[in-house]
Structure formats: C-alpha cells, structure tokens
Amino acid sequence: MASSARRGPYFCGIDAAMDVVAGKWKSLILWELHHHGTRRFAELRRGLPGVSEKMLVQHLREMEEDGLVHREVYREVPPKVEYSLTEHGVSLNAALAPLGAWGTERMARIGAAKVSVDA
Amino acid sequence: MASSARRGPYFCGIDAAMDVVAGKWKSLILWELHHHGTRRFAELRRGLPGVSEKMLVQHLREMEEDGLVHREVYREVPPKVEYSLTEHGVSLNAALAPLGAWGTERMARIGAAKVSVDA
DNA sequence: TCAGGTACTCACCAAAAAGTAAGTACGGCT
DNA sequence: AGCCGTACTTACTTTTTGGTGAGTACCTGA
C-alpha cells in the first residue's frame, strides 16, 4: 500500500504518461527539479507553496519508483537528501513542454491568476 | 457545484493544462474525438470500455465548459447529440502528442499491458 | 406487447487522494 | 535548557473522484 496501484493496463501512451504525472504536485516537482537541477527536501517544500510534507514525500517516492527522480542520501548528522531528475524525468519534462505552452496560452485566454512564487 | 471548482490560480502552464485534462477519461475522450472527428454519446461510451454514463456526461460537460468540445443537439425524436473537438480541443490534442509518445515509450520500457479496444 | 436504443439525471456509496497535526532522532545555536 | 532545522513517519480526517443502479420520455423493430 506504500506505492500506488498503478502501472495497470493502459489505453494508450497518454494514459500511461498521465498515470505518472497524476498527483497534485508532480508536474510542479518535475518543473522545480528541472529548473534548479538538484534540490534538497526542504528546498522543494519551500519552492512549492502549500504542499504538505506528507504529499511531498509521497510524490517523491512514487516518482522515484517510476524512475523519474533520483534520490541521493547523505548519511550526515543533520540529514541531507538531494533530489534530481533522471534521464527519464528529463525526457518527460521535455514531452510536457508543449502542454505547458498550451496551458500558458489558456491562462492568457481565460485570464487566470498565477500563484506567486519567489525563486 | 455542478461544474468543477477549477480555473484557480495556477503555478504555471502545465498546471493550467493538467487542470483541464485531469479526470480518468478526459484524455481518452480527446483522443476518441480527434480520431473519429464527430461522435455521438453512445458511440463514445462504446469506444471507452469501462466508462460509466455518469462520468462520461460529467467529463463532456466540463470539457464543453472549458471550450474543448462542441456539443450539437438535434431535437429529434430518438435524441441525437454529437460531440466534436473545438479549435482549442484540437490544439490541446496536438500539445498532448509528445506526452503520448513518451508514454508509449514508457509502456514498452516497463512492459505494460494495453487495454484491448476494438474500433 | 415488450425489449431495446436514444441521451441523459438523480441519489447513494465506495475508494482514492489529499490535508492536519503530531511524533522522531539528532545536532547547533543561544 | 529550550528552540530551530534536517528529513522524514504515523494516525486520523476531510475532500474529491468515480462507480452503481435506477428512473425518464419517446420511438422502433420483433
């Protein structure tokens, strides 16, 4: 029950891809990691205003299982864990780019607000 | 409460796009409509094995609200309603294509099964 | 006459996803 | 001594999502 009940039979490629990106914060995590290269847990948390620690851990674990992110643990005294995109994570991000462009256009069309995030 | 509580402030374009595609069957509806051009309600239902009438109606309504699909009602005696993609629906589908390709690759990688659908 | 097809709506229920709040082990800083 | 920060885990609750099955109004074909 730790991981998700996914990887099921898919209707098509989009279905398979959506399975992996589904989750309130997953695409944002992807973006954050792509943008910053490597991030620590607390950095991600701060970069994603509103995310709960539980969801962040959960999503990161699933994305690790799905081969999208790499988790590097440093056995140090204040714990340190670094997350980064794997090759598959990078290619997924690239595949997501046109969708992002479409979404940006849509935001302009409907005049949607943007969540303010500071780098 | 009929429609969805969406269109909220978005973090980025992907967020905005995902909002519109989120839902178990939406991407499949998009694909079905793109593939066949125009489809009646029952045709869609038959093309999406496993979808419930409730969800199909609900998703179609939301997609109509979001300007992705066009709903043409013929006031005839056995009711007839035709659904087709709008310009925005078509462009969303195009933006989804690379994601679909990525997903297809992933299916091959992990050896995921495909749901059997007959045309 | 009666099942079957059209395109739905409605009420109810189950499951999944996400949020909340607390706890944990350890050290540094003040 | 006491609080902050690290990176989590755990239990519990709420919200959201999706599924089930019935009902509707009308017509067609067997």
TrEMBL record, chains A, B:
InterPro entries: HTH_HxlR, WH-like_DNA-bd_sf, WH_DNA-bd_sf. The keyword Transcription applies. The keyword Lyase does not apply. It comes from the Bacteria. This is Transcriptional regulator, HxlR family. GO terms for molecular function: DNA binding. Residues 12-111 form the HTH hxlR-type domain. Keywords: DNA-binding, Transcription, Transcription regulation.
